[in-house]
Design goal:
The protein is 19% helix and 22% strand. With 95 residues, the chain is α+β, with helices and mostly antiparallel strands. 21% of the residues are buried.
Amino acid sequence: MFISNITHFLDEEGNIATTMNKHGREIASFLAMVIDSETKPPSEEYVELSCWKKKCTGTIESFVDEESNSIEYWCTDCENAGVISGWEGTKWDLS
């Protein structure tokens, strides 16, 4: 399980930092997509997210934990799962 604070992946302007290595940017982009997907208003079209692990064909499910105000996500096929904090107020927070 990954425990991530999205702000650790961002630069001073709130963008995914270009100074990170490729793998770090890929993880940050995936976390941004989860935040975007989970905070999208119900009236907007649902977009199914694919798992980012190689050779996995699963999809990502998520919810906002009201107690911790973190986004929890998991893959329907593999063990990819995690918790995202620090997402409030980022450019991917559509709530």
